[in-house]
Amino acid sequence: MKDISGNFEPPVIVRIFLILFLEVLVSTKLFVGSLPWSVDDDALREKFEEHGNVVSAKIVKDRDTGRSRGFGFVEMESPAEASNAIKALNDSQLNGRNIVVNEARSRN
Question: How much is the pTM?
Fold first, then answer.
């Protein structure tokens, strides 16, 4: 379809599909590494809430000892917030350690 200026404009359903498809491609789940042992789920959440709405924040723990393994995952509400958090927090300090923040990858 063409709009009144003669430019091609996809139907509304196609535009909605593209928006939803792009949101799926841009993950909202982040990997956070090099964490100090003292950081817990709440401290991790607080650090990321400075950069957007946090859906979840979880430190991965050793199943035998229950101690932190030094990394975790944070899920942000939107891809834009996830991107902002990566830019702001990757290689930043948390309790004296430089942390690594990037998009989480699947285990495959």
Answer: 0.76
